[in-house]
Structures are given as C-alpha cells and as structure tokens.
Amino acid sequence: MPYAHDLDTLASLIKQNPSWSAIKPEYAARMRAQNRFKTGLDIARYTARIMREDMAAYDQDSSQYTQSLGCWHGFIGQQKLISIKKHFGSTKRRYLYLSGWMVAALRSEFGPLPDQSMHEKTSVPALIEELYTFLRQADAWELNHLFRALEEARQAGDEAKAKELLSQIDNHETHVVPIVADIDAGFGNAEATYLLAKKMIEAGACCIQIENQVSDEKQCGHQDGKVTVPHADFLAKINAVRLAFLELGVDDGVIVARTDSLGAGLTKQIAVTNEPGDLGDLYNSFLDGDYIDSADDIDNGDVVIKSQGKLLKVKRLASGLFCFKPGSGEDRVVLDCITSLQHGADLLWIETEKPHIGQIKGMVDRIREVVPNAKLVYNNSPSFNWTLNFRQQVFDAWAAEGKDLSAYDRAKLMSADYDDTELGRLADQWTANFQRDAAREAGIFHHLITLPTYHTAALSTDNLAKGYFGDEGMLAYVAGVQRKEIRQGIATVKHQDMAGSNIGDDHKEFFAGEAALKAGGKDNTMGQFENI
C-alpha cells in the first residue's frame, strides 16, 4: 500500500477521534510502512507464493535456481539479507535455511548436542520467529533511514529528492524471504509432527523439510547408523504437514521430502504388506537375509517373512534392527523419491556422501522417468571435504583421459602444495561451477549450505583471538574488523543504529514530542562514523 494512501487514511481516522489529536498521521503511516508483516502466517503465505513462483521459473529455465545459507541466530540471518541486498540489489531467489544440526549444536537449553533430535522441539519454531523478527527489523531500519532522508529533503525544499525517496519507500523490497525449515524426522509420531509443523508455520515457515529416518533413532545425515522407516509411516507425516498448512490457510506451503536411504543400511520395522508388489512388499524386498526352504531352518527368535514368493529369514542385529541388502541404497532412494512425490511432497532432498553431479544426476534421471518435473533441494554440506573431493574428481577424469598424473598423489591432494597447480585450479573452477552445473544437469532447484555460519563464527573468532591476545593487541580488532567494516560499507560499524537506536529516538519523538530524551545527540560516539 503506497505511503501516501496510508497517510490519507490515517489522517481521516485520527480526525474522527478528537482525543487522538497528539498523534500525527505521518508518524502512524511511517510506523505502518515499517511493519509490513503483522503475523507469522502473513509471512508464511507471502513466502510460499515466492517459492512457488521460483519453482515454476526453474521448471522453465534451470539457471533460475535458488540458494540459501543456514543461520543459527536472527542477527546472522539479518546481516546475510542486508549483505545480499547491498551486493546484488535484490533478494530474489535467495532464501534462509534453518538447520536442525545448528539448533541442536547452538540453541538447545541442554547445551551443545549432536544432530540426533535430542534438542527441544520448541527451539525450532522459536528460531523461525527470531529470524523473521530480525528480518522485519531490517525492513524497519532501512525504511527509517529513507524516512529520515525524506524529512530532510522536504525541510530543504528539494521536491525532486523527496519524490525519489517516496518512490523508494513505496517500492521497498523486504528482507523477508522464504525459510526452508528442518523438522528432522518429525520429533515423534504423525500427531507430534502435525503439532510441531503448526508451530513452525505460525512462526512464518512456508517450507518444511522432513526426513525418512526413525524419530527416536535419528542421526545426522553424514553420520553412520541411520535407520529408515517404511513408506507408509513417512507418508503419514507428509500428510500431517500438509494438513497443518491447509488448516492454517497456507494453501501453497511447500514440503521437502528427504531420503537418507543412500547411507542408511538399517530399518526398525518390516513394512506391512497386503499383496505382492505393493509398497510394503517393495520396501521389504530390499531386506537382507537368507531364503529358506522349511521351518527347520528357523532358529529361536528368527524373523521370517514371505517375500517375492519365497520365505526370507531376515538378517537382524542384536539391537533388533533389520539390515538392508548391501548396495541397495540407490534403488531405495529412487523408490523413496517417486513415492514421496506421488503422495504430496513438492521437492526432494537426497542426502549423499559426496558432492558428485554424476551420482546425483543418475538418481534424478531415474526419478524423472516417472515424475518428469522432479526437483531437488541439495545440501552443499560442510561435512564434505570439498577441496579433496573435487581434486580427486579432476584426477579421476584425467586418469580416464590417459593424462600423465605422475606429479600428483591422489591420496594427498588436500595438500597446499597442489593449490597453484593446473589440477588445483581446475578443481576450484569445478567447485565454483558446481551449483550452476548441478542445477542444469541434476535437477537441483535449491542449493543450501546447512551450517556455514557455524564455521564462519569459529574462524573469525579464532583470527581475532589469535591477534588480540597476542602481539597485535587492539590492532587485531581495528585492522581485522573495524577498518574492514568501514571500507566494505558494513552497516554494523554503526552498531547502535543497527540495533535500533535511531528507530527508538524517532519513536520517542512520536510519543513525547519535544520532551523526548534522545540517544543520538552530539555526545553519542557513533557520530565518529557519520561521514564514512
């Protein structure tokens, strides 16, 4: 809604209420403009439309893929979006990722935990709400500067500048973008999944990612010991999430169905099957074991099922878990993905053990034989050793071409000795092109990094601590942080303003007029950064 329209509407409303005479319509209109989204559901509906439009655009042109970084705090998400707007002029096709791994490691009241669904489930919607609180504050912060500039232009009688600023205010692009939110394996049964999904959607989530692991055995996608569930159990949770979206009026909410079957060799349950070839029978066909001819081959405690017309004594571990056949992971992934898309999921997530476009493409091509518009969300995981992986991929490609590789040791390609070699440079080029190439070749609609800001926080803190507590002293902060903030135009150098001091000062004037006691006067040391 244009600012001028709101101004007229509010002026009329205030005029009808004489006791409100101390309220200036300009202030009310300005505050309304700086608070575009009133609830989390407003955000979920708005961002769901964005995702659906982006998905349709990708179907027409694979270069229109989307990206996100995982953020573990509202401030980190806010600064990410401010940076994107500063460098690229728009947030289009850039999202946020909410990582269950980082919630467990950084946001649990129990303290740092592994990614095994042990953290409080309420931590997830709480972080979604926090992220959007900070993104909405970024809108208010940016618009506040525009309104201050508008006031100055009007006071100076510069109508052309005032008109330009009004256009910027009316066409302001919000920092609010879609969040792909990790619900792990649903934190319990389908009812528990539904209840948590509702909380996440009410907090603003338009996209929920759920995985096919057992809730109480859930492991990080890059750890061993993963245990999957039969399709019927997983599809019930997909239905629970869809119904949560529909109940709350987010009719185009997005569900990402993640399969961990590529690295999961275990199942907790044998699927229920009613007839040969049904979904339960297909799931059970991957179970490892021995075919037997008679009851004499059954020992005490053995589990035997009829599979493919024969009796199968299923291999079971001491833990009670059942084993899948070695090498069956890719076939199970394809079945999982097709089944999920045919039963309500919108996007797929295939958790792999390495970033290899050929491997991903091979599975996606098989899926697309049945569901032609299948699309992936892909984890560009920090659990991969990207440098070593791509150097080895180049090495293997060159070996297949018959190229002389005597200057390289495949097992030691991580060494800095290879950084400035032909192989090292080409591997870096392949890494830089990975998202573009995988979007084109392997159906990846959304590229994310799950926990990059966990690593950047550790790295930057290490660099500062090394210098500050060493010989550099204060220069470590000045040269390594503040000077770079100033020269790179990072808004946090004026940290009082970034935290809302200017907004607060303006509100004081709105509330108390000339009696307002403002923080931004001549004695505020932030004035040292005014002209940079």
Number of helices: 18
Mean pLDDT: 92
CATH topology of the largest domain: TIM Barrel
Strand order of the main beta sheet, please?
12-6-4-3-2-1-14-13
β-strand number = 14
CATH superfamily of the largest domain: Phosphoenolpyruvate-binding domains
**Helix percentage range:** 40-55%
Cα-atom radius of gyration: 28 Å
| Beta-strand percentage range | 5-15%
Shape: globular
Count of discrete domains = 4
* CATH domain class of the largest domain: Alpha Beta
Assign the structural class, choosing from mainly alpha, mainly beta, alpha/beta, alpha+beta, or little secondary structure: alpha/beta
- The termini sit apart by 33 Å
List keywords for this structure.
532 residues, alpha/beta, three-stranded mixed sheet, 11% strand
Please explain how this structure is put together.
The protein has 532 residues and is α/β, with parallel strands linked by helices. It folds into four domains: 1-34, no CATH class; 35-287 and 324-459, TIM Barrel (Alpha-Beta Barrel), CATH 3.20.20; 288-323, no CATH class; 470-510, no CATH class. The protein is 48% helix and 11% strand. It has 18 helices and 14 strands. It has helices spanning 3-15, 25-33, 40-60, 74-88, 100-106, 123-155, 159-170, 190-203, 231-247, 279-284, 329-342, 357-368, 386-401, 422-441, 452-468, 474-488, 495-498, 501-512; strands at residues 66-70, 94-98, 179-182, 207-211, 227-228, 254-259, 266-267, 289-292, 304-307, 310-314, 322-323, 347-350, 376-379, 444-449. Helix 8 packs parallel to helix 9 (231-247). The chain is globular and about 95 Å long. Residues 218-224 have low confidence and may be disordered.
